[in-house]
From TrEMBL:
Residue span, Tyr recombinase domain: 182-398
Species of origin: Nocardioides massiliensis
The protein's name: Integrase
InterPro entries registered for this protein in UniProt: DNA_brk_join_enz, Integrase-like_cat_sf, Integrase_catalytic, Integrase_recombinase_N, Tyrosine_recombinase_XerCD
Family: Belongs to the 'phage' integrase family.
Lineage: Bacteria, Bacillati, Actinomycetota, Actinomycetes, Propionibacteriales
Length: 414
């Protein structure tokens, strides 16, 4: 009778023989993931120990024969190091700015001071969903952070599967806590001037601790004028702006002032010549009041080596985080507590204001182009705050009225 064929990941009968030196050798056939049946051997001081050692080997054995980039006995930290290295070299991968955020997120499950169950030292073959969940639970991260960490782990373990260091992805079985979908509101048009006044007062206050933030009011106004991301605005150079018509278009009535978004400032203060998405590189038309603001700045501002529209006191690019922290500080001050629009204002608040205004005058497609989104869905879902408009379709539904009053001649009630 022909020997029964083994299924992948299973082994046959274990045969044990005693060696001349008194130890025992256990042997069995095992079907690896490539479909090839191979014989494996393990020894032990006794027959039972030899059998147990071979069974333990089969439990840990993944039966894989990868390219050596990553192996089952490598650690989670080594896998993540490999994944980040590949992402940095990938043309279509995340930007360096995004990868920095990912590294920051992963500290919550890798560092012993962040979680009681750090993952970094675990061998890949020993990682189970419950182990990942324990690291996340003891870190006490928010639902949004948990979702981001899980996403990175899923992608990293997929890399291990690709290199045949694992047969399955333990991170996919970890439940992802739903993130509450709270649509943040823009600064209402009627509240913009109050917000501007508060920011200007704080930025130029004589008695305020620390140096003045003289650029902050103009930065906010330009965010309102363009809807740019804060990193895009801070990367703006005078060479990116056309405030006066070039000689060949001086008689062209269709010309208008505009700027070109063609870079951003990273969280480390470095200017890069790419945007968050491929749609981020875009031209933006300037309203007359923003043109006046820029002309005033160009006259008053001494030239700088960066050609930056907004330059720090040290002659460097402004950090996006510094602008965000200053707005956060203003929100905490009691003297502005009565300005409701300041309670959760951020650079993105003004971006939503612009998206909503453009949608009301034009449409969501125009708002998408202004903001540099790749999808109109993102613009509509997260940036546009549409007013409730009750459509009047009564001309149609009135035609469906009953031809006679159904209550005529009928008593009310049961």
């Amino acid at each position: 009778m022909a020997r029964q064929k083994l299924m992948v990941g299973t082994y046959g009968d274990i045969n044990c023989t005693k060696r001349a030196n008194g130890t025992w050798l256990a042997r069995a056939r095992y079907c690896d993931v490539d479909g090839v049946v191979r014989e494996y051997r393990k020894s032990g001081e006794t027959k039972n120990k030899a059998r147990a050692n071979l069974k333990a080997f089969f439990v840990d054995h993944t039966g894989t024969f990868g390219d050596g980039a990553i192996a089952p006995d490598d650690t989670v930290q080594q896998l993540l190091d490999l994944w980040f290295a590949k992402m940095e070299k990938s043309d279509g991968g995340p930007s360096s700015e995004t990868l920095e955020h990912y590294r920051y997120h992963m500290r919550w499950v890798l560092d012993s001071d962040k979680t009681e169950h750090p993952l970094g030292a675990y061998q890949l073959r020993h990682v189970r969903p419950v182990i990942i969940q324990a690291a996340l639970d003891s870190a006490g991260v928010s639902a949004d952070m948990r979702k981001r960490i899980r996403s990175v782990l899923v992608r990293a373990f997929n890399l291990a599967i690709f290199h045949e260091a694992l047969n399955g992805n333990p991170a996919t079985a970890v439940p992802s806590v739903p993130v509450p979908k709270v649509k943040k509101k823009p600064v209402a048009v009627e509240e913009l001037d109050a917000v501007r006044t508060a920011i200007r007062e704080w930025a130029n206050a004589e008695r305020r601790n620390g140096p003045k933030s003289v650029d902050l009011p103009d930065i906010v106004d330009m965010l309102i004028a363009t809807g740019m991301r804060i990193g895009e605005l801070l990367a703006l150079r005078w060479s990116d702006i056309e405030l006066t018509a070039p000689p060949e278009r001086r008689d062209d009535e269709t010309w208008f002032p505009w700027l070109m978004v063609n870079g951003q400032i990273t969280s480390k203060g470095k200017r890069v010549d790419y945007g968050k998405t491929h749609a981020a590189i875009r031209p933006i038309a300037l309203p007359d009041w923003a043109v006046a603001l820029l002309r005033r700045r160009k006259v008053a501002q001494p030239p700088n080596d960066l050609d930056a529209v907004f330059v720090s006191r040290n002659g460097t690019w402004h950090y996006p985080g510094n602008v965000q922290s200053r707005l956060w500080h203003i929100r905490q001050l009691d003297e502005y507590a009565d300005i409701a629009a300041l309670h959760d204002v951020s650079p993105h608040s003004f971006r939503r204001t612009v998206a909503t205004a453009i949608d009301e005058v034009y449409d969501a497609e125009a708002a998408k182009d202004q903001l540099g989104h790749t999808s109109k869905t993102v613009t509509e879902r997260h940036y546009i705050n549409r007013r409730l408009v009750v459509p009047d379709y009564r001309a149609a539904t009135e035609r469906l009225a009953p031809r006679s009053d159904p209550s005529d001649g009928q008593p009310l009630g049961p």
